[in-house]
Design a protein that fits this description.
The complex is a heterodimer of chains A (about 270) and B (about 375). By secondary structure, chain A is an alpha/beta fold. Chain A is built from 13 helices and 10 strands. Chain A has an 8-stranded mixed beta sheet with strand order 2-1-3-4-8-7-10-9, sandwiched between helices. In chain A, strands 5-6 form a two-stranded antiparallel sheet. In chain A, a hairpin with a 5-residue loop joins strand 5 and strand 6. Chain A is globular and about 60 Å long. With about 375 residues, chain B is an alpha/beta fold. Chain B folds into 2 domains: about 240 residues, Rossmann fold, CATH 3.40.50.970; about 130 residues, 3-Layer(aba) Sandwich (Rossmann fold), CATH 3.40.50. Chain B is about 40% helix and about 20% strand. Chain B contains 14 helices and 15 strands. The longest helix of chain B has 18 residues. Chain B starts with a strand and ends in a 5-residue tail after the last strand. Classes of the chains: A alpha/beta (about 270), B alpha/beta (about 375). The structure holds iron/sulfur cluster. The site of iron/sulfur cluster (SF4) has 12 residues of chain A, from helix 9. Iron/sulfur cluster binds next to helix 9 of chain A.
């Protein structure tokens, strides 16, 4: 098990560029273990990423990897999947990448229900450019583009995806990497567009500015706030205030786009 | 006047604050981000005095500026590299709409693959979009050019791009003379261009028109832009009266008897300026205004100085042709009776220009009447 996971990494590219305490490495490791758990052949897996801190993960993963333009990872992945539907695609994006500049591609991938596994590392900030607020920055939190706290309201990414047609939505976090690994592997086994929102910490460009402490404090808070879907069903609205749901939030069956497409060929 | 040590990016942002704009649209991209961050800080302290809109993409940033400028607002945005490329449709659109938008572009290479180093190809490749483009060689120039860009833009009703190199200028700190708002307002007062969207006067703007009318509009736009070099000269006279310094669309530094001139734009001009004292018989032509291309001024400089060889330093490459500045220069020289040879050094991607490279390039061009180009890595 250990050896295989190592094979999935481009160890020559390490050490990585992420800051000490960054959650990107934890999420990337969970992804690697999830791919292993899903039992895929290394040569069948393709990792597509956008640009930003999180998207650097593609460079460290020893599969066919495609590091694409800002926000467009899902559009590249759609082309790849349609050309080679047998491939297993994981699309790594950051919150700014996926939900701001890439928001359009995100909703349309969901609408088509194409079999892509989107893993969005949500650290609530544009990290690589130094801490600008993204559409997933909670209202009131500070960023270089909102020194007094952002007035904007964040998306609920999973509800956005569900509304657009995604058939699998799960939320995990960097403080609970085993659960995250399970969620990504369940997403991998789901046929259709699946979204895993991986909450993560950016102690440098987000934590520091918002006085959230270092990585340890941020991880602790993440863990304390996480409530499983099962447990949440026993809690009332007041108890759920300030909590984040974790686990598989929805999973439904619906026709998958690439399969439907190939089935339709010659029928027109 | 108060000198402050600031980066090129900060100089741009402070200039925008001093001008007093109505709206800033912001989206982060390296190496531009410090500009919008500096403006966000002004905004947080209540010193920006305008709307600060943090948008979801570069495309939206320029669309937001378009909307606001159509309503008569003085606007600003900044971008770089892929951000500029992503705006491409809007860049055309804002010019066609005759809106006086000022945008800073900080040069950075365009992928694939990803690269952060300075390459001027991002903005030079937007040459046909109907924007004026001015290239700066240092932080003071950045500050001053932003002020001047608003004047140019609002008088001609054409958008203007102020361009400078990533890192070499954007992240380098220099002493910059930063006048206060009051002084700046002597040069540039409140905007007074006519709004296109006026409450109570409903109309359809930027709608569909037949090709014949579009033809007229393009002609008008093109003719209007041709006034920019002389207007630039004019407004630099009033700029000098207030601030004690001025610029030309094309600048020349020519020691007596120089037969070879180095022709370049942006930060490389500063490198060349520093190297010139050690390069006997060599002059420099610094191109500030790239659009419109000041062909007449360049020809007269070459004629007056009798330059026999021009060595162009191109921090870009139009793949399949060569350096863009060299192409533009050659087109401008067409029909001259004493045609200088044009040699081109291409630094595309992002390699440093050293004094040795310059020396070698000038030496190789010496006596060589054949026009040609060389790649930077061949001189390293
Ligand atoms: S800036 Fe934030 S997200 Fe980027 S590597 Fe550093 S800690 Fe991680």
């Amino acid at each position: 098990m250990e050896q295989l996971t190592q094979d999935f990494l481009r160890t020559k590219k390490l050490p990585h560029i992420w800051c000490p305490g960054c959650g990107n490495g934890i999420v990337t490791a969970a992804l690697v273990r999830a791919i292993e758990r899903a039992g895929y052949n290394q040569q069948d897996v393709v990792i597509v990423s956008g640009i930003g801190c999180s998207s650097r993960a593609a460079g460290y993963l020893n599969f066919n990897t495609l590091h694409t333009t800002h926000g467009r990872a899902l559009a590249f992945a759609t082309g790849l999947k349609m050309a080679r539907p047998e491939l297993k695609l994981f699309v790594i994006m950051g919150d700014g990448d996926c939900s701001a500049i890439g928001g359009n591609h995100f909703i349309h991938a969901a609408r088509r229900n194409i079999d892509l596994n989107a893993v969005i590392i949500n650290n609530h900030i544009y990290g690589m450019t130094g801490g600008q607020h993204s559409p997933l920055t909670p209202t009131g939190m500070k960023a270089t583009t909102a020194p007094g706290g952002t007035l904007e309201r964040p998306f609920d990414l999973l509800e956005l995806a569900r509304g657009a047609g995604a058939t699998f939505g799960a939320r995990g976090n960097a403080a609970q990497p085993r659960q995250l690994e399970q969620l990504i592997s369940r997403a991998a086994n789901h046929k259709g567009f699946s979204v895993v929102e991986a909450l993560s910490q950016c102690p440098i460009a987000y934590g520091r500015r918002n006085k959230l402490g270092g990585a340890v404090e941020m991880l602790r808070e993440m863990k304390d706030k996480a409530v499983s879907v099962e447990k949440a069903s026993t809690m009332d609205v007041d108890e759920l205030k300030d909590k984040t749901l974790s686990g598989v939030i929805y999973s439904v069956d619906a026709p998958e786009f690439s399969e439907e497409y190939y089935r339709s060929i010659g029928k027109a | 006047m108060p000198f402050e040590v600031v980066s090129g990016s900060q100089a741009a942002a402070i200039a925008v604050q001093r001008v007093g704009v109505d709206l800033v649209a912001a989206y982060p991209i390296t190496p531009q981000t410090a500009i919008v961050e500096t403006l966000a800080n002004y905004d947080a302290k209540g010193e920006l005095g305008c709307d600060f809109v943090s948008v979801e993409s570069e495309y939206s940033a320029l669309a937001c500026c378009n909307g606001a400028a159509a309503a008569g607002a003085r606007v600003f945005t900044a971008t770089a590299s892929h951000g500029l490329a992503y705006m491409h449709e809007m860049i055309h659109w804002c010019s066609g709409a005759r809106l006086p938008i000022v945008m800073v572009n900080v040069n950075r290479a365009i992928g694939a693959p990803w690269c952060l180093d300075p390459d001027q190809g991002d903005s030079l490749s937007q040459r046909d979009t109907g924007w004026m483009q001015i290239y700066c060689s240092g932080a003071q120039e950045v500050f001053d050019t932003v002020l001047q860009a608003y004047r140019l833009s609002e008088e001609l009703l054409l958008p203007c791009m102020v361009v400078f190199d990533g890192f070499y200028i954007s992240h380098t700190y220099e002493a910059v003379d930063i006048p206060d708002k009051e002084q700046v307002s002597k040069f540039i007062g409140p905007s007074n261009f006519k709004a296109q969207v006026v409450p109570g006067e409903p109309g359809n703007i930027q709608g569909i028109i037949p090709g014949e009318i579009q033809h007229q509009l393009v002609k008008k736009r093109s003719e209007t832009m041709m006034f920019a070099p002389s207007l630039f000269e004019e407004l630099n006279k009033s700029f000098e009266k207030i601030f004690g310094r001025c610029y030309r669309a094309v600048e020349v530094v020519a020691p007596i008897g120089a037969k070879t001139a180095i022709f370049t734009a942006g930060a490389t001009a500063e490198t060349v300026r520093w190297c010139l004292p050690k390069m006997e018989g060599t002059a420099m032509i610094q191109l500030r205004m790239f659009r419109p291309f000041p062909a007449e001024q360049i020809r007269s400089i070459i004629e007056k100085n009798n330059f026999e060889r021009i060595v162009v330093i191109d921090r870009n490459c139009s793949v399949g042709v060569g350096g863009i500045l060299a192409q533009e220069l050659k087109a401008a020289l067409y029909g001259m009776s004493k045609l200088p040879a044009v040699h081109d050094l291409i630094l595309a991607g992002g390699i440093d220009l050293t004094g040795e490279m310059l020396g070698q390039m000038v030496e190789e061009s010496d006596g060589n009447v054949k026009t040609g180009y060389k790649w930077g890595d061949e001189l390293l």
